[in-house]
């Protein structure tokens, strides 16, 4: 099951204490930046959960 990004908690790259850490650590390139927003490419997500563990805003989860 691909992860879910809560866009309200995320606050976009500009408000991320990790400066887009989820994008930087995703080995599958399943998370990318699009116009300042964090965007998930579900078909690339391999359920490693690194982004969930690393998100400083707790904006990424497996359940909405």
TrEMBL record:
Transmembrane segments: none annotated. Residues 36-64 form the 4Fe-4S ferredoxin-type domain. It holds the Pfam family Fer4. PROSITE patterns: 4FE4S_FER_1, 4FE4S_FER_2. One of its GO terms (molecular function) is oxidoreductase activity. InterPro entries: 4Fe4S_Fe-S-bd, 4Fe4S_Fe_S_CS. Gene3D superfamilies: 3.30.70.20. This is Ferredoxin. It comes from Methanobacterium bryantii. The lineage of its organism: Archaea, Methanobacteriati, Methanobacteriota, Methanomada group, Methanobacteria.
């Amino acid at each position: 099951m691909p992860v879910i990004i809560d866009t309200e908690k995320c606050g976009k790259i500009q408000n991320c204490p990790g400066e887009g850490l989820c994008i930087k650590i995703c080995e599958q390139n399943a998370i990318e930046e699009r116009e300042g927003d964090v965007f998930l490419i579900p078909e690339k997500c391999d359920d490693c959960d690194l982004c969930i563990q690393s998100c400083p805003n707790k904006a990424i989860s497996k359940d909405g």
